[in-house]
Specification:
Blueprint: E1 3-8, H1 28-44, E2 49-55, H2 59-68, E3 71-73, H3 81-95, E4 100-104, H4 113-123, E5 128-132, E6 139-144, H5 158-164, E7 168-169, H6 176-179, H7 185-194, H8 198-204
Parallel strand pairs: 1-2, 1-4, 2-3, 5-7
Antiparallel strand pairs: 4-6, 5-6
Helix pairs in contact: 1-2, 1-8
Length: 212
């Protein structure tokens, strides 16, 4: 099965405020963009992915991610993460009603295409499925098979909310790069230990990453 991935990205100036202990105000927008660039590049290199849609109103991000090969969809709802994801999924299925769609976080700078492929291949066995984040509280990926609504419930305690919505939880081992999103300095340290992509490596060089 080939998937279209929908990746939401808020305006860079408002992104990654919880990294304030690691990156100054002037650095965080570039760091958030680098996370997204490494995420999108890895997704586009994944054999299970047909294409990528990024939902964003940030013009700098739109240009940079569009240059990598992503399709950019404006965040018309402007009502937060889940509305943006639902809008992106609708934009995909408006032209391809039978598309298999998955939502993915934009802050997975250590993402490995082969690990993502394993997750998507496993998700293909369910109407809806999700992968919990490294903290086992949130969600990094939510997949909906052809004909199934995405019904995103990202945010606080999204693991429990996606499970309650009927989505199957994927308990795959050895897909750490798909679980390791970055919200805090500790998260960034963990991603760097896994091995981040070139954009994040360049921007994070010289940052003082807090110890756990």
């Amino acid at each position: 099965m080939q998937w279209t991935l929908v990746i939401p990205l808020k305006p860079l100036a408002r992104a990654k405020s919880r990294l304030s202990d690691t990156a100054a105000d002037g650095v965080r927008p570039g760091l958030a963009l680098a996370f997204a660039q490494d995420t999108v590049a890895a997704v586009l290199a994944c054999a299970a992915v047909a294409d990528v849609v990024v939902v964003t109103d940030d013009q700098l991000a739109a240009r940079a991610l569009g240059a990598l090969g992503a399709r950019i969809v404006p965040d018309a709802p402007g009502s937060g993460l889940n509305a943006a994801l639902a809008h992106g999924a609708f934009a995909v299925r408006e032209s391809r009603p039978a598309a298999a769609v998955a939502a993915l976080n934009a802050d997975l700078p250590a993402l490995r295409p082969d690990e993502l492929s394993r997750v998507l291949d496993a998700a293909a066995g369910y109407p809806r499925a999700f992968l919990a984040d490294a903290a086992a509280v949130g969600t990094t990926l939510l997949a909906a098979a052809p004909g199934q609504p995405l019904r995103p419930a990202f945010g606080t305690d999204s693991r429990a909310r996606h499970r309650a919505s009927g989505a199957a939880e994927l308990g795959l081992p050895d897909v750490n790069s798909v679980r390791q999103d970055v919200d805090t300095g500790e998260d960034l340290r963990a991603a760097l230990a896994l091995g981040v992509g070139p954009y994040t490596a360049a921007v994070s060089a010289g940052l003082l990453i807090p110890e756990s």
